[in-house]
Each structure stands twice: as C-alpha cells, then as structure tokens.
Specification:
The chain is of the alpha+beta class and 145 residues long. The chain has three helices and six strands. The protein folds into two domains: 89 residues, Pdz3 Domain (Roll); 33 residues. Strands 1, 2, 3, 4, 5 and 6 form a six-stranded antiparallel beta sheet that branches. The longest helix has 30 residues. GO terms for molecular function: protein kinase binding.
C-alpha cells in the first residue's frame, strides 16, 4: 500500500462471479466526472438488489474501487472504467478501498437532500404563500371600492 491511503480505510480483494444481470452495482467517478472534489477515483454508487455484489455482501455503496483484474483505475475517465467492467469476464477480481461508515470522505447518498436543497424548497413555499396572500388581498381591496 502507498502513503496516500486514509489510515482508517483498508484495501480488500473481492472476487465476484458475474450473474445474469452483470456484477450488480453502478459506479460513479473518473477524471472527467469527479464524484468527490479533487478525487478522480471510481466509487460504488449503488448496489443492485439480488445482484452479484449484493449476494456476496462485501462490496458497499461508497467504496472506492482501485483495481479490476489487476488494472488500476486511477487516471481513467468514467467511460474507460465502465468499459473495463464490461469486458472483465465472468470472474472479476476487485481491489476495493473500504471506506469508514461515517468518514468525512464518504459521498452523500443521492437520495439524501442537502440542507441547501431543503432551504430552497422552504423559501419557495414561503414565496408562494406570500404571493397567494398578496393576490387575495388585492382582490378584496378591489371589491370594496
């Protein structure tokens, strides 16, 4: 292992047998689509239910995939990494950097809204309410005179 790895993370070798639906997970990242700021690594985005990865149980969402069948993924575009996964054969050897469950480098799941998003929805709701009250108030003023 080199000195660039996080001390709380451990590299694990995982061998998956490709199933009818492939390896059973989606990836994100690459030099052209960074998933984490200043990190062009390839990460597990989603584990598909009943897929090869889910049935094995060792690969988790947020894990960083360092190698596939001995090919390093560092410096690859997202498309190049996808091509490596598609042509990897039936038995696929992965070298995976297991991320700490609540570590600072773990990406936020896509389904979890950020506080900014929640705040913007709240602001939009207030704006709609104010506009509604304003229109109703204008209507009542016009009816009286």
């Amino acid at each position: 292992m080199n000195g660039t790895m996080h001390c709380a993370s451990t590299a694990t070798e995982i061998i998956l047998k490709r199933g009818p639906a492939g390896l059973g997970f989606n990836i994100v990242g690459g030099v052209d689509q960074q998933h984490i700021l200043n990190d062009s690594g390839i990460y597990v985005a989603k584990i598909k239910e009943n897929g090869a990865a889910a049935l094995d149980g060792r690969l988790q969402e947020g894990d960083k995939i360092l190698e596939i069948n001995g090919h390093k993924l560092e410096g690859l575009s997202h498309g190049a990494a996808v091509d490596l996964f598609r042509t990897a054969g039936e038995d696929v050897q992965l070298l995976v950097l297991k991320m700490p469950i609540n570590g600072p480098s773990r990406p936020r799941p896509d389904a979890e809204p950020s506080s900014y998003t929640i705040g913007m929805w709240g602001l939009a709701a207030v704006a709609v309410a104010v506009a509604f009250v304003f229109v109703r108030y204008q209507y009542h003023l016009r009816r009286r005179f």
